[in-house]
Request: fold
Amino acid sequence: MKKGRVTITDIAKELNVAPSTVSRALNDHPALKKETKQAVRALAEKLGYQPNFMALSLLRQKSNTIGVIVPEITSHFFSAIITGIQDIISNSEYNIMICLSNESYEEEAIIIKKLLKIQVDAVLVSPASETKNFDHFRTLQKNNIPVVIFDRDCPGLEADKILVDDYAGAFQAVEYLIKSGCEKIAHLGGPLNLSTTKHRLQGYLDALENAKIPVRQEYISHVKGFSHNDGLKPTTELLKSSHLPDAIFAMNDSIAISAMHIARKMGMRIPEDISIVGFDDEPHSSYFRPSLSTVWQPVYSIGMLSARIALGRLNSDNADNLAFRQEVFKPELVVRGSSRPFIVPA
Amino acid sequence: MKKGRVTITDIAKELNVAPSTVSRALNDHPALKKETKQAVRALAEKLGYQPNFMALSLLRQKSNTIGVIVPEITSHFFSAIITGIQDIISNSEYNIMICLSNESYEEEAIIIKKLLKIQVDAVLVSPASETKNFDHFRTLQKNNIPVVIFDRDCPGLEADKILVDDYAGAFQAVEYLIKSGCEKIAHLGGPLNLSTTKHRLQGYLDALENAKIPVRQEYISHVKGFSHNDGLKPTTELLKSSHLPDAIFAMNDSIAISAMHIARKMGMRIPEDISIVGFDDEPHSSYFRPSLSTVWQPVYSIGMLSARIALGRLNSDNADNLAFRQEVFKPELVVRGSSRPFIVPA
DNA sequence: TTGTACGCGTTATCAT
DNA sequence: ATGATAACGCGTACAA
Reply:
């Protein structure tokens, strides 16, 4: 009796053949007698033989692992993207390793070192909000590891990119607010170095300009964070000012919801006194009262496409020569109860 | 010039020493001349040497990977647990591989085969709601892979378990509803083979009995799923009946929120006409109007403790002999606006 | 103090 | 049709 797992050598000994024969039998090598093949397979089955993944990895210099780096997973946004990635990759030969940067550049850099160490075959990444320098991603590329950027762009970095047209989404949202009769529209934005929030701000600004509404700096604030609690203070300050806005366009649903919360606490009616629009269309947003108007993003598709592109790079031999892909998904405004009704003319 | 990564052999050649010497220098072997050690380390540094993870894995027969299986990650509950797990494990030498069962027994079994194949060193798992047989977990154990069960219990399976006292949480919630004056309390429950929802149902039943309130079967329904949409139909049916309940205890926040939605749609006032209490305390629940009364669970701690216990098994040599741990966290009722106020006497 | 040889499990190449 | 051997990169028992 032998301890440990059963190896091809074990099978070989038992059958009085060479290990290489066993290997060939298991891999369905054409030049092999039917009987030997069958005998080997039968015994392998009986002994519960499992190929040793690490030995193969060492031999092929390939970990069969794809790294995925996201800022966090507690929001529906990233968890849904990851679900999309999983669903594609779990049907491939690859495994996926999910890593959380906690929006920290430093942690992101550490993660990349770790992924380099375990020799991942590809990396999908949505950079931390702190990240301004992309050299750590370039390091991956220098090691022949394909990098796919999703959701948050890295200007200047050459890589496959799956993005969302945040500018268009924001523009559409603010244009709608204007058409519904709002004139004093505030924006609760995010970090300026983040492509997504930067573009949302730009969409807001351009929609105002397009309607010849002057931009007022006191209507724009930059929230330090992405969750409910982070929106409370900025909203309070905004609504305490002498010039009350009649609408708020928030950079995401969580902030929009905390804005709704504060507005109501201060005695304002939604949407009669103030319209509120978010971004992301998180599943619970439609269950608020009033239900939250927001901008929907194809989260699941973003994940699936990112994964598919990564697999494409890994499977095609001439992958290196292929031009980088840049796909931009269109978001969609979803009008609900937190903003004044307005039928866009067809 | 050589392609590929630099290995200890490369360093050895360049320095005219044996590979083993390089290995020893890098591992700070005591019996080695200071100068050789320094020379090797200097060159290793210069060449950017990185130990080959796969070679080490093969040598030690250890993947340094811990598998984590959860039903899904889009709810805050599991994503927060995973964040807790990550935070502990990322400070160890281990990597973590997150796998989604999608509440399916079949997928769970496939995942376990995959984890077995890559020879994970330990597995943390919260079983799918479909899972009734735990032999696939036992298979892991037979392969000397420690299994840590969290949140959802596996009756009859001997393993480390990190659970929550769902019974107490439910009992507390329903007892509170009774004391606040509710008499016709309905329950929107989950699958009966799931320990969590089964215990919540039992807590509900016992709290009623404890108050000598007869149980009415038409007040109990079993929701097929865990998300908002799944709660709509059961709630509608419940509230269409001739015997209207004056309270609903839902098995989780999402279902509670869809119950609030339907109740309001049918013209009921919350909490005047009907009290609603959920379970989980998802972050957005406090922002609903009225804010949702619910039962809080220490999600992050569940994750951290599960990870710590797994690491403990992996690091101690006599781990096999150690008795299995079973930790049960206490949940806590959080009374908010969706249920009638009631001050519990001190 | 350092070099040699072997093994971890597998496959590919060369030989028979 | 199948066996022997080398190689992937590293650590270590043994030899020197």
In short: The radius of gyration of chain B is 27 Å. Chain B has a mean pLDDT of 95. Chain B touches chain A through 46 residues (CB under 8 Å).
